[in-house]
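[job 0412] stage=fold_complex status=start
inputs:
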Amino acid sequence: MKTLKLGLLRGRMEVKVFMRGRESVVFTLLFPVILLFIFGSVFQNTIAPGVTFSQYFVAGMIASGLVNTGFQQLAITIPMEREFGTLKRLRGRPISVSAYFIGKAYLVTILMILQTALLLGFGAAFFGLDIPTTSGKWITFTWLILLGSACSTVLGIAFSVVPKSGRGASAIVSPIVIILQFFSGVFFVFSELPVWMQQFAALFPLKWLTQGMRSVFLPESFATQEVAGNWELGRTAIILTLWLIIGLIFSIKTFKWSEE
Amino acid sequence: MSTNTKPAIEITGLIKRYGQKAAVDGIDLTVYQGEIFALLGPNGAGKTTTVEILEGFRNLTGGKVSVLDFDPATKGEAGRKWRNKIGIVLQSTTDAADLSVQETVEHFSHYYENPRNVDEVIDEVGLREKAKELARNLSGGQRRRLDVALGIIGSPELLFLDEPTTGFDPEARRAFWDLLNKLRSEGTTIFLTTHYLDEAEALADRVGVITAGKIIEIATPATLGDRGNAPARITWLENDQMQELETSEPTAELKKLSARFNGEIPQLQVIRPNLEDIYLRMIGENR
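[job 0412] stage=fold_complex status=done
writing structure:
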């Protein structure tokens, strides 16, 4: 009970600190919207009857948003907090590591809601994004967001032990995310990518999140254009759950308060 | 010196090795409740390692430590209950949080069962005028005072301070000493490490000198290094020249001088070795 209370307290504090950091707001929250603007303006072609590239791209960017606000943001900021002694200072206080994790999850949730709302609003206003109307699509959307952000959060915490310094974290984490975005069909139509790229991407959560989001935002008819010939939602749920478990185990086993 | 003889910290045969190198090489030390204890020593002597073992940040290699009747390495709920009674001011913090002084102190106060009043703590560390300022905009000394505020916000029974006044101006240092004396008068036990000998002299009931991982002496500041019996230096003016003599019986020498001058001795000074002289001699001998 105390852990939950302190976790939420930390979460509200983390959101406040995040919003005051101009770089983090621009880099994490606004960058996907900027990308959507650029790609949407450059590629105005239609990739299937009634499907513009920008629609395809919005679905990918919403999925990427889960990776940006969770995995990327945490895997960069936690090593910095470790290097600057924020974590060590916390370690000396009557607060559990779970409360710290809850605070991070709260921050990721708020950021993800804001980012998704921004992308949906921007996409609908300027790039003809169709907002889903059936409850079935909204249910898919909701579980993808919940499972995806949980997965992204624990993987971000788990990966935070990899960068050796706070300053170097961004240089390690950002390329991984960008490469995964290219391989997972965010910037290009997935079915047009080389097969080895598709197969590599299929090992990681982003490809499945992207495909899942397409099932929400693209017409049902587009399913046949997918590599598997359908949306593969069942398989998506299984793979995301597997990654969630892997991330959870690693984040609990490997988390360090300091570099000692 | 406190009359309370209940120990707050007990260290027996403490050893900490990094690989082959012993950073702490067999320390025995007891700190009593209600006293201010200062650990002095050059860089790399093992001060911070010792403190961080007591704070539960590092595991020991050998020996035994007990802090408020508790093993600091204990994890989980019991460890958190213990941390509720401990205040820690780490050696340096460089995180530039985008929170104001007020927000930071307020936030951390919620972690504790029995926090002090937030405004009172801000007043006590002298940050009232900076209360609305973001931590990242504070000067080094102000920043340090915020660290101290976060160390005492939980009403600790025992406060650890690792080189607390680095970067303070003289006025802030005096105000800080007053604060520590006030905390002691309220019953807080204080364990501090410092580079500043005048600080140890002004504050500490007892000091311990550590070098190369070993404690070479524990004493009151007045008696450290046989300071009470160390020779004094007498200087005076005679024949237009400053004269100087070293003696362990300065009173007898003064009587002789006074007789020679028929009363007043011109420009008389009797100089006792200060704590710094004693300390430098001690660590010099043990290098």
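[job 0412] summary: The first strand of chain B starts at residue 7 and ends at 18.
[job 0412] exit 0
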